[in-house]
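Morning. Coffee machine broken again, so started the prediction first thing and wrote up yesterday's gels while waiting. Chain of 77 residues, entered below exactly as on the submission form.
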Amino acid sequence: MKLLTTNAVAEILAVPGGTLRYWRKVGLGPAWVKLEGSIRYAEEDVLRYIERNRRTPSVRAYMEEKSAIWARQDLAL
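Came back before lunch.
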């Protein structure tokens, strides 16, 4: 398990370190651990956080849905 510092995670997420501190305070953001006074993030937790927050743009979702419908209609013909 690779542990990352607050600065490393801030760089990965493209947010200031202060944002991560705030998120810890209010219970947001990726899971973290405190080891002998130092805050660390498991790399897999950071990647999981990113994946959980992945969104599909609404236009893309609409087009994918339409494409699936059209494909089913083509198969029915």
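Helices lie at 6-13, 17-26, 43-52, 58-76. Going to sketch it on the whiteboard this afternoon.
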